[in-house]
Amino acid sequence: MESGEGTAESLIRNYRLGKTLGHGSFGKVKIAEHIRTGHKVAIKILNRRRMKSPDMEEKVRREIKICRLFVHPHVIRLYEVIETPADIYVVMEYVMRGELFDYIVEKGRLQEDEARRFFQQIIAGVEYCHRNMVVHRDLKPENLLLDLKGNVKVADFGLSNIMRDGHFLRTSCGSPNYAAPEVVSGKLYAGAEVDIWSCGVILYALLCGSLPFDDENIPNLFKKIKSGLYTLPSHLSPGARDLIPRMLIVDPMKRITTREIRQHPWFKVNLPRYLAVTPPNAVEDLKKPDEDIIQEVLRMGFARSQLIQSLQNRLQNDATVAYYLLFDKRSPISTGYLGAEFQESVSRARPREIMAQVLGAFQGLNVRWKKIGHYNMKCLFIHPIQNPDSMALSNHINENHYVNGITPTNANVSQLQGVVKFEMQLYKTSEVEYLLDLQRLSGSVFLFLDFCAFFMMRLDVP
């Protein structure tokens, strides 16, 4: 280990480090065992000296802080971050089966049903992170891992710039074949459309066993990518032949979005129920901690009150890390996340009853709203610290203004740090079941997550 070894050993005392799995621009990745639970994890060791600038280190810290909140079955979990004077240790989910890249090399082109299953999971993970304002920028089969049950996990989401210094051409494993035209042209890019292009190349590779743009000469490869010219094999179905070109449009403003991909007929074939709707938020897990797992953590010597409070406040400590490792170990995709937890997020109450409870909860949480459609509203949450005199709100829905006189054009309000704008939509998922979806439009991710936690505590939807 590098400098600061004694400090590092004391801080990572909960893990038994194993073999090195790989190397990146800023460090290496090791397999490790969480001693208290016996759960295997992957630990990325990022060397501070290699980050070169304080700005890069701050970006690393900020992106890790965001990704630590992610809980999705098709995104690699980030459990813990440990900082030492010399290194930053990022403790992540360990996926045993390896890269989707190796699977494609071994199998060649896949049957459409298998390729579609992978693609549905990839889009679900990518969309989840886009909704949380994180763009990957380096999606490729090497960054898509398979678990023992053949489910896809998007890796290095939000961390690709950390491990690769923000420039895929500077790494030994980097590949420009999946990069969008605006990227290889050197234009500024930060939007989700960059990932959509990469997903289009990945879908082509899954279905064809080859790449749409390929050339050993990099300048020639860039010309092909910027031209957007490629060949669709004749064996592709009409649906696939329609979807791929929509993703591989050179103009990023005309490129299909994840929402439009979800509505595409080819994508919707045999779409699993849990992927058909917005997945449960991390706050849903915090609302009802698993009592069996709590008891197991308590047997390790932790205090119940400390554990519950830490889970509710999303604190990182030895107790919560042990809880989440055990939670993931007991909740594989085939049973936990897609089973009981998903069912709890669906209501059988009547829509008017649900809306009455929602608006009642909104009133108590200082939320203002504007109706924009049937069971669809744009909302404004103002933290009490920012607006202490506005706790009593009208419960009438106005077509043109947020209740209590706040309009969407009130720039002074929207610029406050304690303000979050979001959209609320009630969906009908079956004849007797409804799903409430809250989507953040602007404002702090963390404040929005806090609001969601308080909101769900106030709801009493069966």
TrEMBL record:
It catalyses: L-seryl-[protein] + ATP = O-phospho-L-seryl-[protein] + ADP + H(+); L-threonyl-[protein] + ATP = O-phospho-L-threonyl-[protein] + ADP + H(+). One of its GO terms (molecular function) is ATP binding. It comes from the Eukaryota. Residues 413-461 form the KA1 domain. Residues 15-267 form the Protein kinase domain. InterPro entries: KA1/Ssp2_C, KA1_dom, Kinase-like_dom_sf, Prot_kinase_dom, Protein_kinase_ATP_BS, Ser/Thr_kinase_AS, UBA. Pfam families: KA1 (PF02149), Pkinase (PF00069), UBA (PF00627). Coiled coil: none annotated. ATP binds at residue 44. Belongs to the protein kinase superfamily. CAMK Ser/Thr protein kinase family. SNF1 subfamily. This is non-specific serine/threonine protein kinase. It comes from Erythranthe guttata. The lineage of its organism: Eukaryota, Viridiplantae, Streptophyta, Embryophyta, Tracheophyta.
